[in-house]
């Protein structure tokens, strides 16, 4: 074994009294942010995630978009260094396509090309650490708009040595992360803190929802697979999130161990927008959409502040322009039109009387 394979992240201890099991996966490596793409921010996010995973002995898999490792068509060693930090901590990497393509928006051929483009560099890095590139995660969790497309892509992945990494605990953490990023960029500390507090409550409510959904669907709680994204919000809060998960009775397991749960062999004919596999399985069974009721929603204030401040500023300008146009042009025109109509009506009345 290499030194990496002896790291605490790759060999999670068995937690005394744990009654639940969870595999943790993190998408969009090396990092993802709506506000910052500089290397300093990348290292801050990477260190926060990797340190917390190691401290809690979480054998996570990080799914990589290789396009982020390139600059002007060439390898960017600075960005690749972020992935080396993951590997040095004994963590796994997977393929998330080269450029985060959406299978519901491109042809199967284009999607398959992007899978292959996302293979060589990540595979090379893994092999240098004595590991094998095994897992694939669909961007947006979109697996095809027809069963035939999904099965075709699944077969393609299998022929290239990949296993699909499903998700049972799906969060809109990326919306919270965008609101958090913009708050920090604008220097709005109170808003950033509010987003963080709200996110922690949102995650716990979702854990309870998916635990209950699992029990209703299978009569037991299956081994869960959590999806997070490699963003600054999760980097800062992962110690608290991990402790929360542990308090709920979870032991962390590898993705391979979680996938041994028989539930992951369930029939799946779902072809709409990406959702949790628990929800996919329920709909495939023909259960009504109401069976899925109760999923916690992302608060409106988070969605509002997740929008780009530049976009919001532009929208406000458009609204102000429309109002100014109404006041300066439309309102005077309307008054003039009313006067003309009034005169026309008075003229018609006068002619009628004289006749």
Automatic annotation (TrEMBL):
- Organism, by scientific name, is Eiseniibacteriota bacterium
A Gene Ontology cellular component where this protein is annotated is:
membrane
Pfam families the UniProt entry points to: Polysacc_deac_1
Q: Ranges for the NodB homology domain?
A: 20-253
Q: Write the record's keywords in alphabetical order, separated by commas.
A: Hydrolase, Metal-binding
Give the transmembrane region(s).
none
Q: SUPFAM superfamilies recorded for this chain?
A: Glycoside hydrolase/deacetylase
From the UniProt record, which GO molecular function terms apply?
A: hydrolase activity, acting on carbon-nitrogen (but not peptide) bonds; metal ion binding
Kindly state a single biological-process term from the GO annotations of this entry: carbohydrate metabolic process
Under which name does UniProt file this protein? Polysaccharide deacetylase
Give the PROSITE patterns listed for this entry: NODB
């Amino acid at each position: 074994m290499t030194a990496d394979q002896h790291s605490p992240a790759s060999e999670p201890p068995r937690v005394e009294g744990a009654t639940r099991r969870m595999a943790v996966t993190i998408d969009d490596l090396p990092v993802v942010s709506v506000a910052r793409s500089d290397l300093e921010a990348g290292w801050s996010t990477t260190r926060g995630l990797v340190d917390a995973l190691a401290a809690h002995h979480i054998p996570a898999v990080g799914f990589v978009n290789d396009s982020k490792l390139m600059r002007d068509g060439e390898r960017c060693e600075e960005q690749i260094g972020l992935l080396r930090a993951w590997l040095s901590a004994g963590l796994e990497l997977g393929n998330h396509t080269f450029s985060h393509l959406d299978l519901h928006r491109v042809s199967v051929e284009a999607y398959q090309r992007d899978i292959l483009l996302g293979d060589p560099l990540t595979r090379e890095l893994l092999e240098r650490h004595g590991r094998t590139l095994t897992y694939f995660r669909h961007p947006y969790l979109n697996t095809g708009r027809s069963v035939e497309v999904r099965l075709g892509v699944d077969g393609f992945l299998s022929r290239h040595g990949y296993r699909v990494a499903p998700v049972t605990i799906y969060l809109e953490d990326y919306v919270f992360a965008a609101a958090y990023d913009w708050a920090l960029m604008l220097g709005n500390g109170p808003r950033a803190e509010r987003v963080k507090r709200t996110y922690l409550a949102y995650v716990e409510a979702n854990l309870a929802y998916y635990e209950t959904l699992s029990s209703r669907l299978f009569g037991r709680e299956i081994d869960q697979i959590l999806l997070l994204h490699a963003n600054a919000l999760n980097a800062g809060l992962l110690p608290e999130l991990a402790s929360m998960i542990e308090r709920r009775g979870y032991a962390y397991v590898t993705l391979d161990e979680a996938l041994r749960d028989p539930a992951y062999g369930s029939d799946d004919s779902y072809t709409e927008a990406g959702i949790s596999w628990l929800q996919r399985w329920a709909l495939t069974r023909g259960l009504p959409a109401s069976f899925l009721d109760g999923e916690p929603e992302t608060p409106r204030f988070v969605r509002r502040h997740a929008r780009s401040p530049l976009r919001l500023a532009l929208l406000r300008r458009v609204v102000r322009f429309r109002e100014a146009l109404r006041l300066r042009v439309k309102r005077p025109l309307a008054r003039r039109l009313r006067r003309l109509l009034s005169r026309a009506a008075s003229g018609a009345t006068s002619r009628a009387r004289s006749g």
